[in-house]
Write a structure and sequence with these properties.
Blueprint (H helix, E strand, L loop, with lengths): L3 H14 L5 E2 L11 H4 E2 L3 H4 E2 L2 E2 L9 H17 L2 H10 L2 H11 L4
Antiparallel strand pairs: 1-2, 3-4
Helix pairs in contact: 1-4
């Protein structure tokens, strides 16, 4: 499982890489695939509704899958271990099993 904080950090990283800012309409709820575009916006909520007209087409260009996979990528990196540990596993012949185990534990969507 991934936490809301991990999702927020990954969203910040991905939007920063693309030169964008984002705003959150976050009301202490679990962030999921279903509500991601309602929470992460390219404009602040005050600019979404103008003169009573809903301008909610301001969702981010990144998706929940992008953010989720970024979190998983970081979790895999930690789980693979240090380069010394990786070399030791390669020498011992356990590296491939370890990689498969990490991929199973932290699957991409």
């Amino acid at each position: 499982m991934i936490t809301n904080q991990e999702i927020i950090i990954a969203a910040e990283k991905l939007t920063r890489q693309s030169g964008l800012d984002f705003f959150m309409d976050y009301q202490n709820q679990d962030i999921s695939y279903e509500n991601f575009n309602d929470i992460f916006l390219s404009k602040p909520p005050s600019q979404i509704e103008i003169d009573g007209e809903n301008k909610s087409d301001y969702s981010l260009a990144i998706t929940y899958s992008d953010v989720y996979n970024e979190v998983i990528r970081n979790k895999r990196k930690v789980a693979y271990g240090t380069w010394e540990e990786q070399l030791e596993m390669q020498f011992d012949g356990t590296w491939e099993a370890h990689v498969n185990s990490v991929k199973t534990q932290f699957p991409f969507i």
